[in-house]
Amino acid sequence: MKTPWFLVLGLLFIFSCSTEQQADVALRNTRIIDADAEDNPDPFIYILGIAQDAGIPQLACTKLCCKERRHEKVSSIGIVDPKNESSYLLDATPDLVPQWKALDSLSGEPSSVEAIFLTHAHIGHYTGLMYLGKEALGADQLSVFAMPRMKKFLENNGPWSQLVQEKNIAIKPMDTAKTILLSRQLKLQPILVPHRDEYSETVGFFIEGPSKSALFIPDIDKWGRWDQDIIAWIKKVDYAILDATFYDGEELNNRDMSEIPHPFLVESMALFNVLDEKDRNKVYFTHFNHTNPVLTQAEIKKEVERKGYRIAEEGMVLPL
Questions:
Q1: Which residue among 110, 183, 189, 283 is least enclosed by CB atoms within 10 Å?
Q2: Rounded distance, CA 170 to CA 152, Å?
Q3: Alpha carbon distance 129, 106 (integer Å)
Q4: CA nearest to 197, candidates 179, 178, 216, 219
Q5: CA–CA separation, 71 vs 186, rounded Å?
């Protein structure tokens, strides 16, 4: 049963406050597109979580950031396509169960998730696949899109290989030279980014809808190590959902920050300062470590927002 258009619009109101070689991708259970449908809104991005891989609160953390802050789900976004009553997950986090449920409620269709797209093999970005196996959902060949090394990692290491053997998932290869067509009005393209690639390569995603586009990069080392220009990308898209794991280099006093490189939020703001206000407004910082003061110190958050940037929050809707 389709969700009435006015209910979906109500949700939007409430929660919003390379050579391109196109490749048609046959997704399991993809529904027929009704080209004449006018009773459903355009697709949208839904922020499903904003925390770094280990979530908030973090295991064994006794700091105020974990004692006094509510639970934050691990960084992920969904793409919801109401016309097709379908949705897509970008990353399978340890919080997959409530995040999947949120997408079902928005798309108006039980088990609406047509496919999962993985960025890389760090714990916050793929371990939610465990809920697809026989101990849980027992999925039937759910499409999981992965880059070549990521695909090989899943196929050759348990328990993930069991998901393949039991046909709970069907791993579909991704190629940065190819655009994946989700529907007539939605397409997605992986983009390689530098990161700690112990088990797999790392990608972000360029998302194109009928009216707007987005860049999603939850993990990257430093902007200067990327072979592409983040400034140009921000100017190109309507939304840039970007890694802000740490606020600055003083945040952790018990870890060697060079071993866990990310663009500090203060570094990103200094780099993005060349942008005009309109373009700075496109930036949504996400993937926050539990220690990041932007989540716990109101004056720091206000200063980031005063400079024109946005702090991603679970439940935000970004129309495409």
A1: 110
A2: 13
A3: 21
A4: 219
A5: 32
pTM of the model: 0.85
Average pLDDT on 96-113 reads 86
Burial class (CB in 10 A: 0-12, 13-18, 19+), 155: middle
**What residue spans of the chain are helical by DSSP H?**
5-15, 64-67, 96-107, 123-126, 148-156, 160-165, 230-236, 265-272, 277-280, 298-306
Half-sphere CA count of 82, side-chain side, radius 13 A: 24
Residue with tokens 């997704």: 27
- Asked if 51 and 290 count as a contact pair (C-beta separation under 8 A), the reply is yes
Q: Give the model's confidence band at 37: pLDDT under 50 very low, under 70 low, under 90 confident, else very high.
A: very low
Q: DSSP letter for 87, please.
A: E
Beta bridge partners of 210: none
Instruction: For residue 319, give both structure tokens.
Output: 């129309």
Examine the pLDDT at 8 and tell me if it is beyond 70. no
Q: What's the CA gap between 266 and 216, in Å, rounded?
A: 19
Of residues 38 and 190, the one with the higher pLDDT is 190
Q: Could you list the beta-strand ranges (E) of 275-319.
A: 283-286, 310-311, 317-319
Confidence tier at 259 by pLDDT (50, 70, 90): low
Residue 60 to residue 94: CA distance in whole angstroms = 17
